[in-house]
Structure formats: structure tokens, C-alpha cells
TrEMBL record:
Keywords: Membrane, Transferase, Transmembrane, Transmembrane helix
Protein name: Exopolysaccharide biosynthesis polyprenyl glycosylphosphotransferase
Localization in the cell: Membrane
GO CC annotations, alphabetized: membrane
Entry similarity comment: Belongs to the bacterial sugar transferase family.
Protein's membrane topology: Multi-pass membrane protein
Length: 475
């Protein structure tokens, strides 16, 4: 199901997951560039040698479409369409070069498996050069438009208290984020000032006139108490009737960051809100997806698993695998299977410990396989056994679950679905090794529990490739 978000920022909602208009425009432009690059490259390769052309230009569409699809997926796998991607030329080149290599390798395999699509290595090499140039020019144009604010959505925040301060904290955390601009904050009576006074907008006769003065298309509600005479319900209704989107801060962070903020949750919201699809149809589709994806991954990675097992055996001896109790769906425990990456006496004191950066308990082989997430591959058997899903919240140990359930509200909600080998929190946040990290990751896990779908699972799998290739978040 594809919907366009009404008013405010132009977003496309696909099965409850929002895709920004900037991303849609960028993908559309680069699809056009890649198609043109393929036709142009083929034409240049056989320029003046029409009799050597292995096929007519009109029959190029299938192979050109295949090339374009492979390249778009390769760039997506390198995180080039994520909202937090820094669109400067240096970072673009850093990710575009491995994307091109990955695309070249996949296209070579396609030519081998499907000879009817073969177009020659010379043609492919020339097309890759043209595609690289075209993508760089496209990205430079989008960077220019972004710096001019042409593609930005503008919003005003109603409130100046602690909930409003979250927007300032987010701007400090991610100052390069583009596509959305907070114009300023509107004060309400009896609220303590928690945002910079310079960000507070001047008082005017009405809310709609303030919105029109600054060209805002959205008002975000960021106040704790919404009852009583101080809440401007009539002004907000007037804005909404004039086409201005009015959004709760929790809905804003869910839409823009893919998080559900723990401090904004209420039991009634969990009960009456949308999402949280646990139907038999969704469960059946997810199980079928788990079996297919796990089977494919097992075949592809089996040689890697054999080499990893031999390396562990040579460096540190047996055991090769490590079994550990984890909490799964419904709070039931199971034994997760992993390649052993630490010394056999890593927890000889008997007390579980968070893994730390440069953990001294990790072996040399362990450091490599943890960085590349190879240590997680044996969990394929947990998925095939039905204890885990391919995509879902990462399973945690009972010791930490008991601790987090007492300190973090709604932590148990993540146990309403099966845990996964990879998940939304893993591709969006990275490794967690503290209570603060656990809270941050929970906010992503809650988003997945609420909005999980086959479409979101595919996005997570594509983003996981970037995590593995670039070694993001491993310890």
C-alpha cells in the first residue's frame, strides 16, 4: 500500500514506512541517468561499426533495466539512499566506488548465468565510466539544491519545554541532516524554557499568521500537558483547515527518524494506535520469507563458515561454536548459536558483561568475524528451527533483560515478535553496550514491532550489506 502523506512534508508511506520525497526524486533521477549511460555507452562502443552491434538498440531495454536495477540496489546496499547519508563529494565517492565494483561483479555474474543478456565486457566497462560520471553530477546537483533549501520542508514546534528540547538535541547530534528544517519554537504559558532563547519565535496575533510569515507547512506539538486553557486548539484547527499539517512529536520522530520515543509512549497509544500487525497472514508471510532467505544465505555463506570454523580451531582450539541463553518471543528463552569470538574463559567470574570496544577477551579471529558479523551466521539454524526470525529485534540475555525491564519502560514490547539475526536497530544505530544504548536501540525496535512488513524487511536486509561491508558497529 502506497500513500502520500497529506500536507506538510512530501513523503510516501509504503506499508507504514515513510520514504522521503528527496529519496524518491534522487532514485528517479539516477534511474534515468543509468539507463541513458547504458544506451550511450553501447552506442559509443559500436560507433561506426553497426555491423558488429550484437543486437539492435531497441532490444537493449531488458539488459539496460537489469543493469539499472543492479546499480540502484548496489548503491542502496552502500547506504547511499539513507536519510543520514552525508551528501558531500568525498562521502559520495567513498560509497560510490564500492557500489560500482559490487554492481560490476553482479552484472558479470548475470552475464554468465543469463547469456541472452550478455553485452560484452568492453561495453560494460564504458557504461560503468559513464554511469560513475553521471551519478557524481546528479549528486552534485542534489547537493546544490539541498544547500539552497529547495527540497526542504519547514516546520514550527509548539512548545519550549523538555519535549521541545529533543529537537535541539537531535539537531546537535545530526547537524548535516537535510530535507527538514525547524524554523523555531512557539512558547506557551507556564512552560520552562529549555530551548535557546534565540530559537523562540516572536509573538504575533495568531498562529496562522506566524505560519504564513515563515512559510511553514507543518506544526509539531511538543508539550507535555494538553489540557486546560493554554492549549491553542482553535488556532491549530484553523491551521489544519488551511492545509497546514499538525503532527504530534512522537509521530514526527517515528516518521522522520524511524524511532518511537520511549518518553512519548502511553498505554492508550499502544492499544489504540495503528500498526502492531500480528495477524496469521503476516506471520505466515514472515515465516516463508525466513525460510527462503535463510536457505539462500546458508548456501552462499557455507564456504565462509567452514573457513571460519577452521580458523577458530587453529587459533584457540575447541569449541568452535558458542551457545548462550537468550530471550525470544513471549519471553521464552532459547539457546542462540554463534561462532566463538572470545576466549573460552571470557566470563569466568560468572557475571554477564556488556561487550566493550576493543574487548581484551576477544581473540584475533574473533575481532575479524565480529567486525564483519560472521559470528552471527550460525544463527541461520536458529531461524530454520523457528526460534528466531531473519529480521527482528536482536535477542538479549535474560540477565540484561531483567535489568532493562525494570529500568526501561515498555522494554517487553520488543518480545511480542521473534528476535532476528539482523534488525532495524542494528542497521540504524550499531552496537549497544550500555543502558543508554539499550534505550536508543529500543526506540528503533519499537518502530519495527509497530511497522514491520515484508517491504521493511527487504530494506533492512539491503542496509545490512552496508553494515557488513563497511564494518559498522561491530566490536
Amino acid at each position: 500500500m502506497v500513500n502520500k502523506a497529506p500536507g506538510g512534508p512530501k513523503l510516501f508511506r509504503i506499508y507504514n514506512h515513510y520514504i522521503s520525497r528527496t529519496t524518491v526524486l534522487l532514485i528517479s533521477a539516477e534511474v534515468f541517468v543509468l539507463m541513458v549511460a547504458f544506451y550511450l555507452g553501447t552506442g559509443l562502443r559500436f560507433f561506426g561499426e553497426i555491423e558488429l552491434l550484437p543486437f539492435s538498440l531497441s532490444s537493449l531495454f531488458p539488459v539496460a533495466s537489469t543493469f539499472t536495477s543492479v546499480m540502484i540496489l548496489s548503491m542502496a546496499a552502500m547506504g547511499m539512499y539513507q536519510l543520514d547519508f552525508r551528501p558531500d563529494i568525498k562521502d559520495t565517492l567513498f560509497r560510490l566506488m564500492p557500489s560500482m565494483l559490487l554492481g560490476f561483479g553482479i552484472m558479470t555474474l548475470v552475464f554468465y548465468l543469463l547469456p541472452d543478456l550478455y553485452s560484452g565486457r568492453g561495453v560494460l566497462g564504458l557504461v560503468m565510466v559513464l554511469a560513475l560520471s553521471g551519478i557524481l553530477l546528479t549528486r552534485a546537483a542534489f547537493l546544490k539544491w539541498s544547500s539552497l533549501g529547495i527540497l526542504e520542508s519547514r516546520a514550527i514546534v509548539l512548545g519550549i519545554g523538555n519535549k521541545a528540547k529533543e529537537f535541539i538535541d537531535q539537531i546537535k547530534k545530526d547537524p548535516h541532516r537535510r530535507g527538514f528544517k525547524i524554523i523555531g519554537f512557539i512558547p506557551l504559558p507556564d512552560e520552562d524554557l529549555r530551548v535557546p532563547s534565540s530559537a523562540v519565535l516572536p509573538k504575533v496575533e495568531s498562529l496562522i499568521s506566524l505560519v504564513n510569515r515563515y512559510g511553514a507547512r507543518e506544526i509539531i506539538i511538543a508539550i507535555q500537558e494538553r489540557r486546560g486553557g493554554c492549549f491553542p486548539i482553535q488556532d491549530l484547527l484553523e491551521c489544519k483547515l488551511n492545509g497546514i499539517k499538525v503532527t504530534d512529536s512522537a509521530a514526527f520522530f517515528e516518521r522522520e527518524l524511524g524511532q518511537i520515543r520511549v518518553n512519548s509512549l502511553y498505554p492508550s497509544w499502544l492499544v489504540f494506535g495503528g500498526g502492531f500487525d500480528q495477524s496469521l497472514l503476516r506471520s505466515g508471510i514472515k515465516r516463508a520469507f525466513d525460510l527462503i532467505a535463510s536457505g539462500i544465505l546458508l548456501v552462499i555463506t557455507f564456504p565462509v563458515m567452514i573457513i571460519t570454523a577452521l580458523c577458530i580451531l587453529i587459533e584457540d582450539g575447541a569449541p568452535i561454536f558458542y551457545r548462550q541463553e537468550r530471550v525470544g518471543k513471549g519471553g521464552r528463552t532459547f539457546m542462540v548459536l554463534k561462532f566463538r569470538s572470545m576466549r573460552d574463559d571470557a566470563e569466568k567470574g560468572g557475571k554477564p558483561q556488556w561487550a566493550a570496544a576493543d574487548d581484551p577477551r576477544t581473540t584475533r579471529v574473533g575481532r575479524i568475524i565480529r567486525k564483519l558479523r560472521i559470528d552471527e551466521l550460525p544463527q541461520i539454524f536458529n531461524v530454520l528451527n523457528g526460534e528466531m526470525s531473519f529480521v527482528g529485534p536482536r535477542p538479549e540475555r535474560p540477565y540484561f533483560v531483567n535489568q532493562l525491564c525494570t529500568e526501561v519502560p515498555y522494554y517487553n514490547v520488543r518480545h511480542s515478535i521473534k528476535p532476528g539475526i539482523t534488525g532495524w536497530a542494528q542497521v540504524r544505530y550499531g552496537y549497544g553496550a550500555s543502558l543508554e544504548d539499550a534505550i536508543e536501540k529500543l526506540q528503533y525496535d519499537l518502530y519495527y514491532v509497530k511497522n514491520h512488513s515484508l517491504f521493511l524487511d527487504v530494506i533492512i536486509l539491503i542496509d545490512t550489506i552496508e553494515v557488513v561491508v563497511l564494518g559498522k558497529g561491530g566490536r
